[in-house]
Structures are given as structure tokens and as C-alpha cells.
Design goal:
Helix content is 69%, strand content 0%. It has 400 residues and is mainly alpha-helical. InterPro entries: ArsP_2. This is Manganese transporter.
Length: 400
């Protein structure tokens, strides 16, 4: 009773609720600043954050900007979506193609179409098998030749999986009865002003940084000494990259509260009417946050714990494709970005990346779990079968 009277007597701006740790994402930029200010970790942090910004974020942002600008000129209700309703055979093909689109938008479209009764269960299996979620952006930006190969493989495997499922089940297999609706995960009224401001600033940040960043990234890719070229002091471009990384992560940390597992590993909600650069900025910072965590974990463990991840995982040998598959079963894009980061760093083999790409369902699994949990569970198990077969086929044919 006393605490209730105390709370009510406090001014609104001093109420205890104002001090709840709402933006737990702030842990990341605070940690980055701590690493940069400590003499022990400063050099490692500068080089790691600089590499993450120039070699990853810049390419991802550029790829995403092109993707969202192209999407701007494609009608939301286009022929691909309308052709879903013509036959079970075409449903599977177009579902696999929509799933192959980087990000989770295509898979979420098919998920909603299944729940509303417009496509069959085979289409759900096809789209969940072919989708890579946001990890596709990272792989395409960093290793485009491998990225396109994995995406194309996902389409083929998705089509075959969907057609096989159509032979086994009717279209309405495990479809929920009645109309289901998902709850909005948008920001609360208390935090919407802060979050919207941070979202807008993310777009402004990448609007001004995109072209210079991609130019520096390209120079670095061609082994040009940018510091010498621009007459910058030693580690000048590295410090600039680290600083820009901290700013981008600070803005990202204020755009969404962490309330549960989904809000941690799923990409932020984006308005359909947002500018393409705004959408690209939100996706880029989400992907970058997970990449930074992976890169710093590798570097800190390698330097201070003397852990060589390439050697460590090399001992896993035959278990690596299974490990990639198992992580792929986790809903959300965050864990899948970590697997792709492992592959790009050389710590995980391509077979693990392939099995993860086929088994992972990205953010599309969240609405499926909410609206049709039984269908989500069975469809995920079905996508794990080709992931196991293809992942281990590649391992035995090319990696031993």
C-alpha cells in the first residue's frame, strides 16, 4: 500500500515504469562502446567493426536498396499471386519462387494464403523449404555466386518437396477451421514516438551513407589503401567504420523492444508505404546486428580464449550438416544469419550452409505457429527431410 501511494505521488516523468529496461537491445551498442574504449580490446574492436561495416553492411544495404526499389514497381497483387489458384502444380512452383525471394515477405504471403484457404499444404511445404529469410541477403551480398546457387537449389528442392506432399495430402491438410487473425507486434503507444524517430533516423543514416559506403567497400575489395588514397591518418577509415557501426546499432537498438524470443530473432515490422531506402535500412541494421555479434564472438574467443573456430568445427566433421539443419528448425532469421556468418568466416562448411538454408523457415514460421500450429510443425519436419538428404549428399560428394 505504501509503495502504491509513493508511486502515485511521484511526477509522471519519475514514475518507476519509466525506468524499466524496455530497450534491451541497447546492450549491444553499450558493449561496442566499452570494447572501443578499453585499451585491451580497442584495436580488435576497431578492425572487427570496421570490417563488419564496410565489408558487410555496405554491400547488404546496397543489395537491399536495389531489391526494395525493384519491388516498388511490382504490384503487390501480381500475376504470381493470382496464379496460385489455377492448379496444385502451379501453386507449388510459385510458392517456391516466392520463398526464394530474399527476406520473409514471399513466405509470409503464402502462409496467409494457406490459412485463408487459397493455396494447399503442398505450397506451404514448398515455400518453407525454399526460403532462406534475411540470411539470403547476407549470402548474396558477400558471396553472390554461392548465394544464387543456394537460392536456385532451394527452388528446385522446394518444388519437388511440394509436389511429393501433394501426392500424400489433400490441400486442406491441417488447415485451421474458421478465420484466424494474428496480433500486431507494433510498438506500444508509450514507446511509439521513440521507435518511430529511430526508424526515421535509420533511413536518413543510410540515405547519406549508402553511396560513400559502397565506394569505400569496393575500394577495399580491390585491396586499395583507402587511408593513403584519402590522406587519412593510420586506421582513419577503420575508426570511421567503427563509429558508423556504433551509430547504426544505436539507432537499431531503439526501434523495437525485446519482449520474447520472436521479438529477438525476427526482423522489425516495416510499413508497406515506407520508402525503399527506409525498408533497406531497417533490414540492413537487423542483419548487421547479428553479424556483429557473430564477428565479435569469433574474434574475442580467438584472441583471448585461443579458440580457432575453423579447427574447432572441423572436428565436428560429419555432424556439421546436421547442426546446420537443427539450427534451421529454429524460427526467426537471427540464428540463420549466425550460421551464414560461420560459413562466410570459414568456420562452417558449405554443406552446413546448404542444410540450414533448406531447413530454415525464417520469420514466416511465426505466423504459421500462431495461426496453424499443427501445419507449421509438420511442414517444418517435411522441410528437414530434403535438408538432411541434400546437405549430406553435398558433404559426401564434395567435402570428404
Amino acid at each position: 500500500m505504501h509503495s502504491m501511494r509513493l508511486s502515485s505521488s511521484l511526477p509522471q516523468w519519475l514514475s518507476l515504469g519509466q525506468f524499466r529496461p524496455a530497450y534491451k537491445r541497447l546492450i549491444l551498442p553499450v558493449m561496442l562502446l566499452a570494447l572501443l574504449t578499453s585499451e585491451t580490446t580497442r584495436e580488435l574492436a576497431v578492425n572487427t567493426l570496421s570490417d563488419a561495416f564496410w565489408a558487410v553492411s555496405a554491400y547488404v544495404a546496397f543489395t537491399l536498396a536495389i531489391y526494395h526499389y525493384v519491388s516498388l514497381y511490382v504490384s503487390k497483387e501480381n500475376k504470381l499471386v493470382n496464379l496460385f489458384h489455377r492448379s496444385r502444380h502451379y501453386q507449388v512452383i510459385f510458392a517456391a519462387l516466392l520463398g526464394a525471394l530474399p527476406g520473409c515477405g514471399g513466405a509470409i504471403i503464402v502462409t496467409s494464403q494457406f490459412v485463408s484457404g487459397r493455396v494447399g499444404f503442398g505450397a506451404i511445404v514448398a515455400v518453407l523449404t525454399s526460403t532462406m529469410g534475411d540470411a539470403a541477403f547476407l549470402l548474396l551480398a558477400s558471396k553472390p555466386e554461392i548465394g544464387f546457387m543456394v537460392v536456385a537449389l532451394g527452388v528446385v528442392v522446394g518444388c519437388v518437396s511440394g509436389w511429393v506432399v501433394n501426392l500424400l495430402h489433400n490441400d486442406d491438410f491441417l488447415r485451421p477451421d474458421g478465420n484466424s487473425t494474428s496480433n500486431s507486434n507494433g510498438p506500444t503507444s508509450e514507446s511509439s514516438n521513440i521507435e518511430q524517430t529511430a526508424i526515421n533516423l535509420q533511413g536518413a543514416f543510410w540515405k547519406w551513407c549508402l553511396i560513400p559506403a559502397i565506394m569505400v567497400a569496393l575500394l577495399g575489395s580491390f585491396q586499395v589503401d583507402v587511408n593513403a588514397l584519402l590522406s587519412l591518418p593510420t586506421l582513419g577509415i577503420e575508426w570511421l567504420g567503427a563509429g558508423l557501426m556504433v551509430i547504426s546499432m544505436l539507432l537499431w537498438s531503439l526501434t523495437k523492444e525485446i519482449k520474447d524470443y520472436e521479438s529477438t530473432v525476427a526482423e522489425d515490422n516495416k510499413s508497406l508505404s515506407s520508402h525503399p531506402l527506409q525498408k533497406a535500412a531497417q533490414d540492413t541494421n537487423f542483419i548487421t546486428a547479428w553479424v556483429v555479434v557473430a564477428f565479435l564472438t569469433f574474434e574475442l574467443a580467438s584472441t583471448f580464449a585461443d579458440v580457432n573456430f575453423a579447427i574447432l568445427f572441423s572436428h565436428w566433421g560429419i555432424w556439421m550438416p546436421l547442426a546446420g539443419l537443427a539450427i534451421g528448425l529454429l524460427p526467426g532469421c537471427g540464428p540463420q544469419i549466425l550460421v551464414t556468418s560461420l560459413y562466410l568466416s570459414g568456420a562452417a562448411p558449405l554443406s552446413a550452409q546448404i542444410s540450414n538454408a533448406i531447413s530454415n523457415d525464417g520469420d514466416a514460421l511465426f505466423p504459421m505457429i500462431a495461426l496453424a500450429p499443427k501445419a507449421a510443425f509438420i511442414a517444418t519436419l517435411y522441410s528437414a527431410i530434403p535438408a538432411f538428404v541434400i546437405g549430406y549428399s553435398f558433404y559426401f560428394l564434395f567435402e570428404i
